[in-house]
Every structure is written in structure tokens, then in C-alpha cells.
Amino acid sequence: MSFTRRTGAALSALLLLLPSLAYAWGATGHEFISGIAVELLPDELPPFLRTPQSVEIISFFGREPDRDKKTSEPHDSDMNPAHYILLDDSGAVAGILPLDKLPTTRDQYDAALRAGGSTQYQAGYLPYAIIIGWHQLAKDFAYWRAASIGADTALDPADRAWFDKDRRLREMLILRDLGFWSHFPGDASMPLHNSQHFYGWGPYPNPRGFATGDAMELFVKGAFVRRNINRDVVKNAVRPYDACNCSIRDRTLKLISESHKLVVPMYELHKRGAFEAGDLEAIALVSSQLALGAEAVRDMVVDAWRASFDMLVGDPSISMRSILLGTHILRRDDFHYD
Predict the structure, then answer these.
(1) Most Cβ neighbours (<10 Å): which of 38, 56, 60, 225?
(2) Residue 85: what pLDDT?
(3) How many angstroms separate the CA atoms of 99 and 189, rounded?
(4) Considering only CA atoms, which of 138, 142, 160, 157 is closest in space to residue 251?
(5) Around 63, how many Cα atoms within 13 Å sit in the side-chain half-sphere?
(6) What is the pTM of this model?
């Protein structure tokens, strides 16, 4: 059996042992990430998104994907792998596919993993959960922009009223879509969610004697965050918007790669009892990663808003650019799909 197939078999065996998946930062950590990200959105984002009420709603929805676990099949086996990607120590997915070689679609990703003896459901598909959700958010923003313009410029008063209602409903949908999606960049900021050492070091060479089994449970279920992390400290550690002029794929893989570098340092801290004792070094690492998660969400939301300028809406498709520039005057029929 090849090394990659042995690795895939080990991952499969490990996952079968898990009664449920770990909850990353716990409810508190995810609320911090989602809420702080929205609080730090720049003024170019719509005002409805930056109100205290919206921050509260998005913070609440940011923890929701964890609450959806333990539902039933086929829900759980399909959705749980959205929360993680199992990279080996070299950064390859399940020891098979280098992270920077991820294909465009989940079908292509699954095919590449199956060729090496794994699947997207065994190795996880966290990058795709982030990227797909981001595209949905950009489309939401495009329709919000269009409805806002239609409410002001449609020639028929009845059409203007229809667009105004559509805009208000779209705002509700954006709060839900943004909040729910924000959970997954938050997961990616948690180093263990990017590693084959997801729930203890597992069945791999372990010369440093790191914890195996569920010994990390105290930390990964969020008790450490709830007891030790100050929200203001996390917020103050968030860096300014990174104008990287890069794709959502690039931002996602950078976030995962940065987090993956901290897997061994986390295990070293755990081995010293730093998480259980609430040591300053452990607090600093977790605060920094929560800030990284909030940065990623904030930056990705800004990018989604800007990307919405170039999207298509309606049927037949209308370019947002033509709507924004006033070369297409919207009618209610543009949004009907009869």
C-alpha cells in the first residue's frame, strides 16, 4: 500500500472514532470573530450592515453551523466536513493533494482525493465552504445594490415599491448568509481544523509525545476561550484591511496556511498544560488567531462588496455595471423568472 493510501486509511479510521466533530473556538469564539468583523467594516459597506442590531444578529448566526451538528443523515455526513480540512505535516490534503493545487470545483477535488485513496468527506472541504459562501454573499450584495437602485429609478411607481420591498427582504437574507458563512473562516483560523492532528495527534509518528485521542477536548470545545479571552483584546489586535488585490481562493488558502503553521506550537503548549492553566502564552496565541479570523471575515466581506459591482443579476442577465452606470433602467420584470 502506498504512503498516501496508508495516510488516507489512517484518516478514515480516525474519523470513524469521532462521535462528533470538534467545535473549533466554541460559541464564544465564533461570536467574537463574526461580531468584531462586522464592527470593523469600512463605511463603504451599506449602513444596515453596521448597526449594533446587525452586529448582534451576525454574531449569533456565526455560531449556528456548530449548532446544526448531530442532526441526522444524510445531513451530518455531508455538512460536517465543511468545518475542516485535514492537512498532513507537509501541507498536503490527506497526504495526497498539495493545498496550493486545489482544483476549482468540489467534484474535481473529490476526484483527486479518491485517486489517492480518500474523499472530500474524509479529508474535509473547508476551503470550498468558504469560497462558495463568499460567492453567495457577493451575489446577495449585487441584488441589494440593484434593488436599491430600482427603488429610486424605476419608471413605474409600483415597480419602485416592489424593489424597495425586495431590498428590505434582501437585507434580512444578507444578515443570515453573512453570519452563517462567517463561521467557516472562523474555523480556518483554528489551527487544528486545518490538520490531520484534528482531535489529538492521532495514529501518526509522535516522537514528541503529544496528546492523542480526545485530550484536546477542553480547548477545542471553547472552554478556554470563554474563560480566558477578552473580546476587546481580540478586537484591538485586528490589523487594517489587507488590500491584497487577490482572489477569494488566494485569501482562503493564505488563511489556512497561516493557521496550519501553529498546529505544533499548540500541541507544545498543551503538553506543558498551558491551556488548562490559562498561561499568558496560550492566551496570546488564541487571541491572535481569533483576531486573524475576524480580519479574514472583514476583508472577505469588503472584497465581496466590491466584487458585486461586476456581477450579473436578473434573467436574462443584466450586468450590475450597466445598472450602476444608469445605462439600464430596471423594471420589476427584470427580476421575474417566469
Answers:
(1) 38
(2) 97
(3) 16
(4) 138
(5) 17
(6) 0.92
Longest dimension (CA), the chain: 73
Which triple of cell numbers denotes residue 64? Answer: 449556528
Determine the length of the chain: 338
- For residue 13, the 8-state DSSP code is H
Q: List phi, psi (to 5°) of 219.
A: -80, -50
126 Cβ contact partners less than 8 Å away, ≥ 6 residues apart: 81, 82, 83, 84, 85, 184, 187, 188, 193, 194, 256
Q: Which residues contact 1 (CB under 8 A, 6 or more apart)?
A: 9
314: left (phi > 0), else alpha (psi -120 to 50), else beta? left
pLDDT in tens, 13-64: 454 444 345 667 999 999 999 999 999 999 999 999 999 999 999 999 999 9
> 18-27, 148-157, 326-335: lowest mean pLDDT where?
18-27
pLDDT of the residue at 200: 87
